[in-house]
TrEMBL record:
<dbReference type="InterPro" id="IPR029058">
    <property type="entry name" value="AB_hydrolase_fold"/>
</dbReference>
<dbReference type="Pfam" id="PF00561">
    <property type="entry name" value="Abhydrolase_1"/>
</dbReference>
<dbReference type="InterPro" id="IPR050228">
    <property type="entry name" value="Carboxylesterase_BioH"/>
</dbReference>
<feature type="domain" description="AB hydrolase-1">
    <location>
        <begin position="24"/>
        <end position="153"/>
    </location>
</feature>
<dbReference type="InterPro" id="IPR000073">
    <property type="entry name" value="AB_hydrolase_1"/>
</dbReference>
<protein>
    <submittedName>
        <fullName>Phospholipase/carboxylesterase</fullName>
    </submittedName>
</protein>
């Protein structure tokens, strides 16, 4: 693994350890996690022939890390800020890595799934999207978060901001999409993925979009999910 340091990025890069497929998988991690948590996963994907990049995300690791991500008031204040900032940074990230959109597969887990989906919806040539236990339906997911926390309804301004980033209000894209979610996810409701999948397939049911649901799986990645992910990558790249 090597590192590229710059402003505002510090990217952890894993070179392919067998025949280079010519694609780069960018992994966006979950809320409160660290790039270090993905070392084994990234090495495994690089062993499949992909270059893998795990960028540090704002308010995590060396980028002004928050003191306690999981205090409710901290999560509520910064969660969407981190997602929006990461989406806005994508073009600069690609430029710094010297890779083109057509060679990038976006892979996001939990909060990272929101980020990957938001970047994909803004781009035109991304090679593929993998959203694991995240959501491509921002407005609906925030409404569910608020209902769970007994918070007030969204204001008009909050709705406007969320809608401006919401993948459901953006480009559907034409490259392969893999959505994966545990049916018992108590952190990020599967309803967000279901809503996004319904949007994607409403007018183009034959598009290359897969939605895999996993019975009895909460907010985690099971061995079965990992196997299905690798199988999907082998079939498409």
């Amino acid at each position: 693994m090597s590192e590229i340091k710059g402003f505002p990025f510090e990217n952890h890069i894993y070179a392919p350890t067998k025949t280079n497929i010519g694609k780069t998988i960018i992994i966006f991690h979950g809320w409160g996690a660290s790039t270090k948590n993905y070392n084994e996963f990234a090495n495994y994907l690089s062993s499949q022939g992909f270059q893998v990049v795990v960028p540090e995300i704002v308010f995590h690791d060396s980028r002004n890390k928050l003191e306690n991500h999981f205090r409710k008031e901290i999560t509520q204040k910064y969660f969407w800020q981190v997602i929006f900032s990461s989406i806005d940074e994508a073009t600069c990230l690609f430029r710094e890595l010297k890779i083109s959109e057509k060679d990038v597969i976006l892979l996001g887990i939990s909060m990272g799934g929101f980020i990957a989906n938001g970047i994909y919806a803004n781009a035109q040539e991304i090679a593929g999207l993998i959203n694991i236990n995240g959501s491509g339906s921002f407005l609906l997911s925030e409404k569910i978060f608020r209902e769970s926390d007994n918070r007030p309804q969204l204001s008009f301004e909050e709705i406007r901001t969320l809608t401006s980033y919401d993948p459901i209000c953006k480009n559907k894209g034409v490259s392969p999409i893999l959505l994966m979610h545990g049916e018992q996810d108590a952190v990020v409701s599967i309803k967000g993925q279901e809503d996004y999948y319904a949007y994607l397939t409403k007018e183009s049911p034959t598009s290359d979009i897969a939605f895999l649901k996993y019975k009895d799986i909460n907010h985690t990645i099971s061995e079965e999910m990992t196997k299905d992910l690798i199988r999907w990558l082998e079939e498409h790249f």
